[in-house]
Amino acid sequence: xxxxxxxxxxxxxxxxxxxxxxxxxxxxxxxxxxxxxxxxxxxxxxxxxxxxxxxxxxxxxxxxxxxxxxxxxxxxxxxxxxxxxxxxxxxxxxxxxxxxxxxxxxxxxxxxxxxxxxxxxxxxxxxxxxxxxxxxxxxxxxxxxxxxxxxxxxxxxxxxxxxxxxxxxxxxxxxxxxxxxxxxxxxxxxxxxxxxxxxxxxxxxxxxxxxxxxxxxxxxxxxxxxxxxxxxxxxxxxxxxxxxxxxxxxxxxxxxxxxxxxxxxxxxxxxxxxxxxxxx
Amino acid sequence: xxxxxxxxxxxxxxxxxxxxxxxxxxxxxxxxxxxxxxxxxxxxxxxxxxxxxxxxxxxxxxxxxxxxxxxxxxxxxxxxxxxxxxxxxxxxxxxxxxxxxxxxxxxxxxxxxxxxxxxxxxxxxxxxxxxxxxxxxxxxxxxxxxxxxxxxxxxxxxxxxxxxxxxxxxxxxxxxxxxxxxxxxxxxxxxxxxxxxxxxxxxxxxxxxxxxxxxxxxxxxxxxxxxxxxxxxxxxxxxxxxxxxxxxxxxxxxxxxxxxxxxxxxxxxxxxxxxxxxxx
Lengths: 280, 280
Fold this sequence. Notes:
The complex is a heterodimer. Chain A has 14 helices and 2 strands; from the N terminus they run ββαααααααααααααα.
């Protein structure tokens, strides 16, 4: 680093120093420490002489690349709030865009289902005839229906284009299913804990939810996803209704039943994986 | 040859959508002409690898469509008949989304490609607009733009001019003809004007079968000697023209006032079930 030798009156004299050859070379090659580099950059903004010194040392392709990146950042549209949130959470930009296209990962669906579960949990706190079961009955079908609205011909307007694209349709489906599960299960757990306290009801619906979702996914090999999830959910609600017809009952949520839901989840998941080529 | 189709069959229940179809296509624009229900969309979906045939073989760009799906999809552009759009996306975001489905993961390179195709279809100025704010013609151009991502060697366009006004159709023809200069384009249409304006070759489908394959001039020539004007209705197909005379197709009576046929005349003769040329 040289002390300045500028003419008196030079407006850049205030910097008090200039870059020498070694520093210029190190800066151009990105070898300076972040603190020194920041200091150099502040100086370069004010010093034409050092900019001239630096100019021949910076490769034109690198300059072009930096300029292109600036243009891209300025020119590419800012992503929507959900996509920004995903990126903040560390989701890669292209995955965030694939997820943002799913309607059940958008605010109206998330708000609607959260509100439904909120009222269901409120009802569960009451001692009415059905109050205790309504949260347990509804919580499992929210992720199943949400997943079904995240992919497939009826839910995805670009489904046909996606079929002819090389990106795996199975992978898109799994990515969205995972995202919907997270955005359905977490609010349901939060609502449950907030309104019902730490009772088993808060988690008693988790395995049924996984079983309904994985079974719906598997059935979407043969049926439209919304129809598959709708059918599975209708059967589930019919089962809950049937076991509660004469008196309040938690027969659908006992230990043996939870084991059955686990088995359904594992078997459906396995069959889904084995038949993954069918989705492309 | 870019496209070689042999003995293609497809049935939906008892209805045979394709019934032993065979044809070939080369660089340039090849038209698939036929009435509604002739099997055009079924065929285009099979060429796009979005639908598997019941029988027969399809070779695209030298590859087997049943075996080399991923490789074919990387070199394919596809505009379905009913293209859906994620309405909340901007034009840029939508095309960017499809680019991700085409495995363009690097953001900078992908954004450059999105800008390139939007410029190619003249949509650079509206790239930040929501798709729901665009006219029908502009949306079709968005559809074409996504089909051009990755400079595909084979472009499949299913009824791209349906629902467009005459001016928009002219613009589309100009665009499609430009696309076909260095690629193989398969254009499905039921409008003979599109074929006349764009196609080097034409395949006529009827009831899932190929009833003609050749140049537009050869299609027109089918009606040579079978098209005449008269004061009274005659011929197998006959309609009153604006000049008050009847234009007739079929076996012309002796001494008829024969006129120069159009491609539409040849096409109508084929669809009318007349063994054109047999009684010339």
